[in-house]
Amino acid sequence: xxxxxxxxxxxxxxxxxxxxxxxxxxxxxxxxxxxxxxxxxxxxxxxxxxxxxxxxxxxxxxxxxxxxxxxxxxxxxxxxxxxxxxxxxxxxxxxxxxxxxxxxxxxxxxxxxxxxxxxxxxxxxxxxxxxxxxxxxxxxxxxxxxxxxxxxxxxxxxxxxxxxxxxxxxxxxxxxxxxxxxxxxxxxxxxxxxxxxxxxxxxxxxxxxxxxxxxxxxxxxxxxxxxxxxxxxxxxxxxxxxxxxxxxxxxxxxxxxxxxxxxxxxxxxxxxxxxxxxxxxxxxxxxxxxxxxxxxxxxxxxxxxxxxxxxxxxxxxxxxxxxxxxxxxxxxxxxxxxxxxxxxxxxxxxxxxxxxxxxxxxxxxxxxxxxxxxxxxxxxxxxxxxxxxxxxxxxxxxx
Length: 399
Fold this sequence. Notes:
By secondary structure, the chain is mostly helical. It has helices spanning 12-22, 30-39, 49-58, 66-69, 71-80, 101-114, 116-126, 132-141, 151-157, 163-174, 180-192, 210-214, 227-238, 248-251, 260-274, 277-286, 290-293, 298-311, 316-323, 331-345, 353-362, 368-374, 378-397; strands at 193-196, 199-202.
């Protein structure tokens, strides 16, 4: 018999909407419904569990909230069906000492937000007993509240046997310009690059030694990239951006006779790794990729994306840029996207499917009156209907 539930179930209307979503009505909203429901601290009713657990078996991306939402009965069912036992590895709210790997990550993340030093000390106290997989994921939790106080621990993690642990530690040390690893990368970058007047001379490294590997440089390149180009990109991506001595907008005007594409690709990666807003802004102008937007505040993300929508035709790149903007889109970006939909509806209505879905899923649902009144064009009305659906969804979860 299933144990007694500790949490109250969501209301009837909310549960009915979940059933509709799982049945195929706006099914891409399932992760949003699950996240919103988990935030209320409630669980789903028992009758939806079999279908929900089966969806979680097929789609790993929705599992993150199921440990809480499935309740005691869900975990009981997971213990009876090997196909659903993934649920037993998802966070349930238990403590560091008693929980599984996912519970312990969640606990560490919460503690890190409240007391970064205490979280690191807790991790250090059990580090040697953790599995390699857990060590890699625990290191990534330290990204929140990262400071030079974490540098000695992360430097020691560069000696870990597991490559994923070393990579995770190197990624965080890259965000600390004063770290020993960043200083080593700066020396390597200066050995490769010389800036004089309006020319940037580049000589890619001839070899990848063990010290470079320890600092996160991967010796074997992906298919289609030469070894020297690969090593150069990784060094420049991990070198502190401050070493270049010029603003990125100035550097982008300089001539790079050799290795031009590799240097600029490395600068893009550096802006992403180091979360530098000035560089992210400049490199987005050179290569507008969604990853660069993550380094910018939400307001600026939306401003840049709105400007991009106004200036570019509807294509896969525009969809990718919009996909990188944090929800919920506010009026400026929403209006730019609705205007684009109206324009494309008169010339290429067959090309609107993904943009209409994305708009309906990302615009703040409270703006559904704006979409409703913006234009009678069918595609805009589809956006309005989806926004209304989401607005009702949130009301049902917060009665």
